[in-house]
Amino acid sequence: MSKVVVYTSNTCPYCTMAKDYLNEKNIAFEEKNVQTDAQARTELMAKGYTGVPVIVVDNEEIVGFDKARLDTLLDK
């Protein structure tokens, strides 16, 4: 089982779509809301990103909600 982390914000529609998609596929994930969690915001910025969603599957980072890439990484 892959470790999945989703960096989100409260107002991001693509974040909601990504979380809904993972829930539909019964994929467990950790949500890190950069709007309410300063540590999460610091982590995301350290990775070089300022926008969300950023989805991390094991060590692979996906910027945005890329369903095809997400499926490929989760099917490994």
UniProtKB/TrEMBL annotation:
<dbReference type="InterPro" id="IPR036249">
    <property type="entry name" value="Thioredoxin-like_sf"/>
</dbReference>
<dbReference type="InterPro" id="IPR002109">
    <property type="entry name" value="Glutaredoxin"/>
</dbReference>
<feature type="domain" description="Glutaredoxin">
    <location>
        <begin position="4"/>
        <end position="61"/>
    </location>
</feature>
<dbReference type="GO" id="GO:0009055">
    <property type="term" value="F:electron transfer activity"/>
</dbReference>
<dbReference type="InterPro" id="IPR011767">
    <property type="entry name" value="GLR_AS"/>
</dbReference>
<dbReference type="InterPro" id="IPR011911">
    <property type="entry name" value="GlrX_YruB"/>
</dbReference>
<dbReference type="Pfam" id="PF00462">
    <property type="entry name" value="Glutaredoxin"/>
</dbReference>
<protein>
    <submittedName>
        <fullName>Glutaredoxin family protein</fullName>
    </submittedName>
</protein>
<dbReference type="GO" id="GO:0045454">
    <property type="term" value="P:cell redox homeostasis"/>
</dbReference>
<dbReference type="InterPro" id="IPR051548">
    <property type="entry name" value="Grx-like_ET"/>
</dbReference>
